[in-house]
Specification:
The chain is an alpha/beta fold. It starts with a helix and ends in an 8-residue tail after the last strand. The relative contact order is 0.06. The structure holds 2-acetamido-2-deoxy-beta-D-glucopyranose (NAG) (6 copies).
Length: 334
C-alpha cells in the first residue's frame, strides 16, 4: 500500500477511535462532584504528586480513586484516608474544600510536617480526625474545637508542643481524645471536667505537669491514661464507684494521695498506678474486680494485700517496691 494512503487511513482511524473510557465516563456516568474533584487535584499537587496517589488520575471519576470514599447517594467525598505513605510535605489547605468530609486521616507518614491547617474548620461534618504517627508540630490549635461533630480526635505520635487547648472540652460529641506521645506541657485544663459524654482520654507520654483539676471527678471516663507525665498531687477523684471506668493508668508520674478510701467502678479491669508516691493501703474492694491488669509497684503503700478475687493472679512484680506492703504474692505479714 502507498505509504501516503496508509498514513491517511491511520489518521482517519484515530479520529473515529472511541475515546478512552475515562473521558467517556466523565461525560456520561461520572459520579464525582466537580468541586470535590478540583479539591482533590489541588491536594495531590500540594503533596507533590506522590506515588501513593497514583490512582488519582485527571479526568477520571474521583469516586473510583483509592484513599477516598464517595457517599452512595450524594456522591460527595465523605472520607479521605491516607495511611502509610511516602509523602513529604504538609497537610494541604485544600482539605478544607471537601465540605462533606466526615473522616480525615493522615496516619503513619513520617515526612508529613507542619501544623494543622485552619481550613479544616470549614469541615463542619467531620466526626473522625486522625492525624497520628506523623511529624506535625507546633501548638494544638484551639480552632479544632469548632469541629462540633467530632466524636474521635487522634493527634497522637507527633511533635505537638505547648499546652492543651481548654476549648477541646466544649466538643459536645467527643468520646475519644488521643493526645498521647507528643511534647505537650502545662497543666490539664480545668475545663476538662466539662466533658458531657463518657470519654476515653489518652494523655500519656507528654510533659504535663502540676496538679490535675478536681473537676475531672465530674467526668465519666471509660479510659483515663495520664501515664508518663510529670503530674503531681491528688488523683483520687478519678476513682468512682458509680462510673463506667474500665482503665485507669496513672503510672510514672509524681502523684501523692491516700489510696485507702478510693472506690472502684465495678467495670475496672486495668489499673496501673506504678511509679508514683501513692500511700495508704489497697482497699479490700479490689477483690471484687474482674482485673486483667494490676500494677501498684514503686509507691509508698503499706498494709496487707487484699486476698481473693483476681488479686493473686498477679505476681510480686505488680506489688514490689512499696513502703510496707505484705501478704501474698509478697512475703507474709508479720
Ligand atoms: C523522608 O524524607 C527523607 C529526606 O527527604 C527521605 O530520604 C526519606 O526517604 C523519606 N521517607 C519516607 C518514609 O517518606
Ligand atoms: C520516598 O520518596 C522519595 C522521593 O520519591 C524517594 O527518594 C525515597 O527513596 C522514598 N523513600 C522510601 C522509604 O520509600
Ligand atoms: C519524625 O521524624 C523523625 C526524623 O525524621 C523520624 O525519626 C521519626 O520516625 C518521625 N516520626 C514519625 C512518627 O514518623
Ligand atoms: C456519680 O455520682 C456523682 C455524685 O453522686 C454524680 O455527680 C455523678 O453524676 C454520678 N455519675 C454517674 C455516671 O452516674
Ligand atoms: C489513709 O487513710 C486511712 C483511712 O482514712 C487512714 O487510716 C490512714 O492513716 C491514711 N494513711 C496515711 C499514710 O495518711
Ligand atoms: C509493674 O511495673 C513495674 C515498674 O514499671 C514493672 O517492673 C513490672 O514488670 C510491672 N508488672 C507487671 C505485671 O507488668
Amino acid at each position: 500500500m502507498d505509504t501516503r494512503i496508509s498514513f491517511f487511513l491511520t489518521l482517519l482511524l484515530l479520529c473515529f477511535l472511541p475515546t478512552p473510557s475515562s473521558s467517556r465516563s466523565l461525560a456520561t456516568t461520572v459520579r464525582c462532584n466537580k468541586n470535590d474533584y478540583d479539591a482533590l487535584m489541588k491536594i495531590k499537587a500540594a503533596l507533590n504528586n506522590p506515588y501513593h496517589l497514583a490512582s488519582w488520575v485527571a479526568n477520571t471519576d474521583c469516586c473510583d480513586w483509592y484513599d477516598v470514599e464517595c457517599d452512595s447517594s450524594t456522591n460527595r467525598i465523605i472520607s479521605l484516608t491516607i495511611f502509610q505513605a511516602n509523602i513529604s510535605g504538609q497537610i494541604p489547605d485544600a482539605v478544607g474544600d471537601l465540605p462533606y468530609l466526615n473522616t480525615l486521616v493522615f496516619r503513619h507518614i513520617t515526612n508529613l510536617t507542619g501544623t494543622i491547617p485552619s481550613t479544616i474548620t470549614n469541615l463542619k461534618l467531620l466526626s473522625m480526625v486522625r492525624l497520628s504517627y506523623t511529624n506535625l508540630s507546633g501548638a494544638i490549635p484551639s480552632f479544632v474545637s469548632q469541629l462540633t461533630n467530632l466524636d474521635f480526635l487522634d493527634l497522637s505520635f507527633n511533635q505537638f508542643s505547648g499546652s492543651i487547648p481548654s476549648s477541646l472540652s466544649s466538643l459536645p460529641k467527643l468520646t475519644v481524645l488521643h493526645l498521647d506521645r507528643n511534647s505537650l506541657t502545662g497543666a490539664i485544663p480545668e475545663t476538662f471536667g466539662n466533658f458531657q459524654q463518657s470519654l476515653n482520654l489518652y494523655l500519656s507520654h507528654n510533659q504535663l505537669s502540676g496538679e490535675i483539676p478536681n473537676s475531672l471527678g465530674d467526668v465519666d471516663f471509660t479510659t483515663i491514661d495520664l501515664s508518663r507525665n510529670k503530674l503531681q498531687g491528688d488523683a483520687s477523684m478519678v476513682f468512682k464507684a458509680n462510673g463506667s471506668t474500665e482503665t485507669i493508668d496513672l503510672s510514672r508520674n509524681m502523684f501523692a494521695f491516700n489510696l485507702s478510701n478510693v472506690e472502684f467502678a465495678s467495670n475496672l479491669q486495668h489499673l496501673d498506678i506504678s511509679h508514683n508516691k501513692i500511700y495508704g493501703s489497697i482497699p479490700e474492694t479490689i477483690t471484687g474486680l474482674d482485673l486483667q491488669y494490676l500494677n501498684v509497684s514503686y509507691n509508698l503503700l503499706c498494709g496487707s494485700i487484699p486476698q481473693g478475687g483476681k488479686v493473686q493472679n498477679f505476681d510480686s512484680y505488680s506489688f514490689y517496691h512499696n513502703k510496707c506492703l505484705c501478704g501474698s504474692p509478697l512475703a507474709a505479714c508479720t
